[in-house]
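Hi everyone, sorry if this is the wrong subforum. Our group has a chain we'd like a structural model of before ordering constructs, and none of us has done structure prediction before. Sequence below.
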Amino acid sequence: MISVEVKPYLLLKKHVFRIAGGSRTSTPVVLVRLKYNEFEGYGEASMPPLYGETIASAQTFIKTLDFSKTSYPFDLENISAYLDRHAKGNTAAKAAIDMALHDLIGKIEQVPLYQYFNLPKVALKTSKTIGIDSAKIIEERVAEADEFQFLKIKLGSDNDAEIIQAVRNVTDKPLFVDANQGWTNKEEALDKIEWLKEQNIVFIEQPMPKKAFSDMEWLVARSPLPLIGDEGIQRLDDVKTASHFYHGINIKLMKSTGLHEAYKMAKMAKSLNLKIMLGCMSETSCAIGAAVHLGAMADWVDLDGNLGVTNDPYQGHDVKNGIIHLNDTNGIGLINPNWDKI
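Answer:
Right subforum, don't worry. Here is the predicted structure as tokens:
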């Protein structure tokens, strides 16, 4: 039988994090440990306030789950269905259970998860995210991120041109741009995208509000840069119609309820010729360590959520010169997780 333990945790950011929708200096997290026989599996629910989950809601959801009849091999399809039936929403809490189950599977079968998914081991060039700020601070943050080959720049405020200019004062490297639903007029959005095309931008993430369907249909037909859905693409069902509004999707474990559905989303996206981005919230090396195992399926990777915090309780895959190097530890890839000292 599986036993479940949870710990609330507050993940502290190195810098104030600002996007078009607000700012914060920390992220509430619930850490999970599942035990099955002599094996331990680790998971995590990261819950930025924007998405509506809290430490209290995650703990309540997880503590009321019944795994009394669960045995190995774990039936992830039925377990995922059970989690969805148990309560609506709670996608981060569901992701925590999902990744802990995958961690157990990898340890029981003695394989790292990329092998479990029959994927190759690849080194991943992750972007480093720079939040909205003054030009001076942005220049400092860009200089600090010199080792990364790609930067992800947050736009969607009233000083977009100033932000891009500040970045270009420091570097000419390629940029991912994330407007976080901040552009609300389709013609103005297109003007900005056409201007950004000349600034060595790779793609634009979530340029308009997620429910502006007709505007996004208009924009995706005209944009000279790929448009990637983030807030507008949450789960598997969203992928089915994503090509009407986007050229690609951003898959995050905290939205998708974990690896089981994220893998299905990536497979469906490929079948529909959609580009794939792997993204994250502010997370520990646990959730980041889980997501990187799907890296071979991605066109772009933005898995830096553990690099911008001061109190990551775990150690996972190494990042050198902006490249994530997967280790071959069984399961997620955490190295000597010391649960009792967290």
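For your construct planning: The chain has a mean pLDDT of 97. The radius of gyration is 19 Å.
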